[in-house]
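note to self: dont lose this again. the chain is below, predicted strucutre after it. 128 aa total, dont forget to put it in the shared folder this time
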Amino acid sequence: MIGKWLDIGPVEQIEPGTARTLPVRGGEEIAVFRTMNGEVHALVNKCPHKQGPLSQGIVHGTVVTCPLHNWNISLRTGKALGDDVGCVPTIPTKVDAGRIFLLREAVLAPQVPEEPDSADVVRQEKAA
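---
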């Protein structure tokens, strides 16, 4: 499929409960997840906390747990869950005829700058 959607391959290439990464312009990576229920979700492969590789986290339901500090991130919204605050950009996906498609403009768009960690902000204020 050419145009609005980018074909990244067959859904079977991602085992249920795991992820695959795709390099994109600027050196970023997108993590494409397949849940145990067969849902496919994609988001930038950086936890909003300390930029841990979400693709290496544990998938449970529609949540991935960051492998660095156990933050839980919604695969549907990219938002940190529980007491944690932060959000990672999501990429619209669809599955058609057994193939995974990502919204081309979201894959190629520059990513939103990450918010600084609150501890970093406090350190910067004290230094000033």
